[in-house]
Amino acid sequence: MKLKKKRWFMQIFGVGGSDQEFEQSEHGDQPGSASIVTEGTTVMGKIVGNDSVHVDGVVRGDIKVNNIVIIGKNGKVYGDLRAKQVICNGECSGNIIADSFEVLEDGRCEGDVRVNKILVKGKYKGNLICGGLFVDHGGEVQVVGQVKKVVVAGVIDGNLACKELRTLPTSILRGRIFADEIQNEGGRIECYIGRFSDLAKENEQARYYLGKFNAIEGYILLEDKEYYTDVEAEQQGEEMIEAEIDVEERRG
After folding, report:
1. Torsion-angle region of 16 (φ positive above 0: left; ψ -120 to 50: alpha; else: beta)
2. pLDDT tens per residue, range 78-130
3. What global pTM score does this model have?
4. What's the rounded Cα separation, in Å, for the pair 143 and 160?
């Protein structure tokens, strides 16, 4: 049975709408057409394609698809991910470029991330550039990042610069946080709080991203082309590499 369900975290960010829905089966997100790496299977090497990929086994290599990457509870990916959407309830270690990224309750992710929106219910550690970050109750983030808007109900520990910060009663903030607009609804603040605009006066990177955040509407920091993969070009490139290796082996 498939259910229609709204992405509630998008509503918290003030984006999406009544037509922003996704299909979810009783067993979780299931793309209509997907390549599945089953539990007990290990894939060594790059995965490239237009369909979705569902990983319940192990992938040691990059994944570049123009749909969804789902990492199941027992799934592990050691490599970079580029996709329209990444959903992780297992383990991933590598850099991610996507429109949206979700770390579910059992998810553990580490790496540099550039996305428009990220929801963290599990654990994420790395460098983050995004339009909107929501850390759910139970979510833990260790981050160095630049974000337009942050809503936190869980834990953030690190150095984070944002234009807008909303803290919920269950939130815990540690490290150094810079924000120009703060909506404090409770929680524990165990960190230094400064202004993003003041940081931007002294820090070139902060100045660059403050300008980017001021220029965009909503949370669309990345354009489609930044996470789109030219599958045919990728495949041709792999064929050329294989041909060169074959020639070298014959010479040897």
Report:
1. left
2. 999 999 999 999 999 999 999 999 999 999 999 999 999 999 999 999 999 99
3. 0.84
4. 7
What are 161-220's pLDDT values in tens digits? 999 999 999 999 999 999 999 999 999 999 999 999 999 999 999 999 999 999 998 889
- Residue-range domain boundaries for the chain: 2-240
From CA 144, how far away is CA 99, in angstroms rounded? Answer: 19
**Closest to 176 in 3D by CA, of 163, 188, 158, 151:** 158
